[in-house]
Amino acid sequence: MAKRKKGIFSRLKTVFASPETKQNLKAQMILADWEAVYKDLQAHPLTQAKVINEQLLVTTNETIKRFEKKLDGFDDRIVKLEERRIKVIRNAQEIPLDYLDEAQVSKRKKTSKSDKKETPSQIVQRVIADPHMSDQEKEIIKIIQKNKEIDAQSLAEQFHISRSNGSLKLNKLHDWGFLSKRMVDKTVFYRIKDTNSVA
User: Fold this and answer.
1) What is the pLDDT of residues 29-64, one digit of tens each?
2) Containing domain of residue 135, as a range?
3) Would you say 105 and 99 are in contact if contact means Cβ atoms under 8 Å apart?
4) Domain total for the chain?
5) pTM of the entire structure?
6) What is the CATH number of the domain that holds 155?
7) Do the domain assignments include residue 194?
8) Residue 82 lies in a domain
9) What does the alpha-carbon distance between residue 192 and residue 186 come to, in Å, rounded to a whole number?
């Protein structure tokens, strides 16, 4: 009898309940249904495969980030190795690289009137014929001759290297006396030096 009273009492509550209470009860029932569906989905084999795939994706992304960090350091290492290569060549005196010596460059500038004048095409031929120039340095000179002038960013894009590495290569060729440079806004453009136009 007590159970009947409770059952009748709870039904009367739902019948005479306020609209808010009815909405809350409805929402609770919908939520309970969704929880049951969610449990069924979690137990489904495809859902477990999705979880595994998500874990693989996270692990793969972390590995790629680690590789990117290591690869970012390579540009700096290449620049340092390039600088060391020049020093080793100069110190070993395997080849006469007098154009690497800053004193020789400044001496050339002072005595430029007595020096033989070179056209850009003669400079290109001299660089290409030089057995001590790397293939990449020769290729850079050819690209500059073709395009008339180039900046570090454009060179970096063509050779798939960093902008700083491209700038280093262009500055090196400039220091050796093969290139002249001009600045437009904040961008430095390099072109093959024309000693005929230098006074």
Assistant:
1) 888 888 887 777 777 777 677 777 888 888 888 888
2) 116-199
3) yes
4) 2
5) 0.41
6) 1.10.10.10
7) yes
8) no
9) 20
